[in-house]
Fold:
Amino acid sequence: MDGFYIALIFLVVGIVMVGVTILISRIIQPRKDYPQKYLTYECGELPIGKAWIRFNNRFYVIALMFIIFDVEIIFMFPWAVVFNKIGMLAFVEMFIFIVVLLVGLAYVWAKGDLQWVKPRPRLEHLPKPKGK
Structure:
């Protein structure tokens, strides 16, 4: 049971630290309200139109793919540090890991998700309406 108590203490200390940090920031933060603060953008530009416009979902697809591949690349740094100690096993494991990443990249590429404007599918195989 010693391990569970250590984990519980660690969890409680973590929650207390987060609470103390939030409390301190609420106490010392400046409170200056002005109308521009509640605009959609705070970059110095006046917003044009409404904020609730439809965005192309390509922004999200490209961002998610970047995050996925970027996070996967982070796993290569610890591998590089211990590569000499582990030897051929580490090489084979990383080779399999990179192959899986490349298969995912090939799949996304083949689907056309890396193109900014996805081509529309051809409908030549469908019968044409009669009378028109």
Summary: The chain has one domain: 8-111. The chain is about 60% helix and 0% strand.
